[in-house]
Specification:
Order of helices and strands: HEEEHEHEHEHHHHHHEHEH
Radius of gyration: 22 Å
Number of strands: 8
CATH superfamily of the largest domain: Alpha/Beta hydrolase fold, catalytic domain
Protein name: Alpha/beta fold hydrolase
Structural class: alpha/beta
Number of domains: 2
CATH class of the largest domain: Alpha Beta
Keywords: Hydrolase, Membrane, Transmembrane, Transmembrane helix
Distance between the termini: 86 Å
Helix content: 40-55%
GO molecular function: hydrolase activity
Largest sheet: 8 strands, mixed
Number of helices: 12
Organism: Methylococcus capsulatus
Strand order of the largest sheet: 1-2-4-3-5-6-7-8
CATH architecture of the largest domain: 3-Layer(aba) Sandwich
Pfam family, one: Abhydrolase_1
Amino acid sequence: MMTTYLGSIVPTLVALIATGLFGLAYAGFRRDLDRARERISTGSQIAQTRCGLIEYAVAGRGPPVLVVHGGEGGFDQGLAFAEPLVRSGFRVIAMSRFGYLRTPLPVDASPEAQANAHACLLDALHIDRAALITASAGAPSSLQFALRHPERLSTLVLLVPVAYSPRPEGTPQVRMPLLARTLAETTLRSDFLFWLVSRVARRTMIRTFLGIPTAVMEGATADEKMRVRRIFERIAPVRARLRGLLNDAAINASLPRYALEKITAPTLVIGTRDDLFGTFDSARYTAAHIPHARFIGYPDGGHLWVGHQDEVVSEVVGFLRTAGGPRFGR
């Protein structure tokens, strides 16, 4: 009889425990999601431009630098990246690209249209000429900006760019294993699922979404681990970035070769050989075909150049100051 009683009560206890654990997890998720939503709801403005609405934020004073974020980003990612530039005396304009946060996704969301939107934002801010820094999936529109609006560009910096390079037919420009692609396609469609998997499989998520080898993270300094963590946490809320992510994925699936030889702006390109997204060849190829471009390649560091942050900042700041002159733009 006791056995019968226990057999009937155990499933109930398990269900209660499971419900309690889910409740605790969901409460943690709601707390973190509210924080993320509060972060992206402050600090930015909406510019009404001839290219449509564009979200942006401005920080610092000095020569203007337009920061074009990569995948999974927005103005908040741009501001976080550009903190060293602000401290170095530059005026940073960090925008949200098409489909990210409060910038709508238009019918034509091509790199060419996005490049025109970059110019429209500068017009709205009464900036004649600026430097442009971009990373990863921000490269296609940034290269198009250099080609379509050369008079607006003082210098161009491309970090681990998602760009064309000669590859076997049918091979995508961005490398992502099947498991990583499946994980991305599922978790990015749900804030809760992204949050939950991030808690139970943080290493896998960092490899998947930030393209950093696990060994690189394990050997990183405390400061670098904190930098990566801040960037990773800024992916949330993912639903607010989903349209932009899907648009980037469609663009990156079939990147054409641009007329790199026609780019006239002084250009710096930085890549890392162990980038899990496979951008090293693209970075090297792009630098080789832009006239007088400078290429810096690191043997390790993954997609966020972990372990080389201070060097990268120093190189970028030095390049902006020398190639762009003591004061550029207005």
